[in-house]
Amino acid sequence: MAMLEVKNLGISFGGLRAVNGFHITIEKNQLYGLIGPNGAGKTTVFNLLTGVYKPDAGSILLDGKDITGEKDIEISKAGIARTFQNIRLFSQMSVLDNVKVGMHNHHEYSVLAGIFHTPKYKKEEALMDEKAMELLKVFDLADMAETNASNLPYGKQRRLEIARALATDPKLLLLDEPAAGMNPKETGELMDMIRFVRDHFDMTILLIEHDMKLVSGICEKLTMLNFGEVLAEGATSEVLNNPQVITAYLGE
Ligand SMILES: Nc1ncnc2c1ncn2[C@@H]1O[C@H](COP(=O)(O)OP(=O)(O)OP(=O)(O)O)[C@@H](O)[C@H]1O
Fold it and tell me: Does residue 183 share a domain with residue 75?
C-alpha cells in the first residue's frame, strides 16, 4: 500500500483554479520532489494535504486512511508533518521547547493536570524532555537546547524546524523549500540531513524545491506542476529531461 495516494485533488480561489486534477502516489520510504514555476500551486497542494485548505474535489489517502477534508489537527495526528517556506519557529522559546511543542499535539492530559502538575503530568513532561533531547542530538543541536530559537544561525533554524516536525512522530514529512536562502555549503549539509532523516527515521518525504542541484541529488521521483496541473511525473532524470518541463520551467 502506498504511504500517500492522492487522486483528482482540486481547489479554487474565487475564479482561479489554483490546483486541478492533482494526483500523486508516494511509496513508503520514498524521497519525492514537487517542482514547478512560481505560482504553479505547490504550496497550495501542501495546504490541501495538511488540512489548511479543504479540497473541493478529490481524495487523499494516508497509509490507507482517508483523510480528505479533515482538520489540520486531525491530519497531524494521522501522521502528516510539515515545515514552511518561511521559517516558523517560536523565536522567543528555547530550542528544546520548540521541539516539545511538536510533541504536545499527541499527549492528552487535562488542563488541570497541567496547572497542578500532577504526577502523570510530571512523568509525561520528563519523558518528553528525554525524547526531545534525543531528537536534538540527532540534529546536532543538543548543546543549544536552552538557547532561544531566534539566536540560532539560519541553517540550524532550518534543522530545528525539521526536528520539530519529526517530534510529532509523522508517517509523511512535507518540506516546503527547505534550501531557500541557504548557501551551497548549507544546501549540501541539508541534502545529507534529508537523506539521513529518511534512513534513520524510516521516513517518507515529499519536498518542494527550486534548487535543482538538491532535487536531482536526492529525489527519486518528481511531479512537475504547471498552472495547477500535473505536467509530468516519474523518475527524476526522466522528468528533468522532459522537453515540456524544460520549456515550462527549467528553461525560464
Ligand atoms: N489563500 C489564497 N487565496 C487566493 N489565492 C491563493 C491563495 N493561496 C494561493 N493562492 C493562489 O494560488 C496560486 C498558487 O499559489 P502557490 O503558493 O500554491 O504557488 P507555488 O507553486 O507554491 O509558488 P512558489 O514557488 O512561488 O511558492 C497562486 O496564483 C496564488 O496567488
Answer: yes
> Do 180 and 232 reside in the same domain of the chain?
yes
**Is there a domain that residue 225 lies in?**
yes
Task: Please count the structural domains in the chain.
Answer: 2
> What is the span of the domain harbouring residue 56?
1-79+170-252
The dihedral over CA atoms of 201, 206, 212, 218, expressed in degrees to the nearest 10, equals: 30
pLDDT digits (tens, 9 = 90+) for 198-247: 998 999 999 999 999 999 999 999 999 999 999 999 999 999 999 999 99
**Is residue 200, in this structure, part of any structural domain at all?**
yes
85 domain-assigned? no
Question: Per residue in 67-93, is it b (16+ CB within 10 Å) or e — as a string?
Answer: bbbbeeeebbbbbbbbbbeebebeeee
Residue 180 or 28, more confident = 28
Domain end: 168, 203, 234, which one? 168
Q: Return the best residue to mutate from 9, 11, 42 for the ligand 1 pocket (most ligand atoms within 8 A of CB).
A: 42
Establish whether residue 39 lines the binding site of ligand 1, counting it when its CB lies within 6 angstroms of any ligand atom.
Answer: yes
pLDDT in tens, 86-132: 778 888 889 999 998 878 665 555 556 666 677 777 777 788 888 88
- Write the residue with the smallest CA distance to atom 8 of ligand 1: 44
For residues 160 and 232, what is the distance between their CA atoms, to the nearest angstrom? 33
In a shared domain, residues 75 and 12: yes
Asked if 18 contacts 44 with a C-beta cutoff of 8 angstroms, the reply is yes
Evaluate whether residue 103 is within a structural domain.
yes
Q: State in Å: Cα 16 to ligand 1 middle.
A: 10
Alpha-carbon span 78 to 210, nearest angstrom: 28
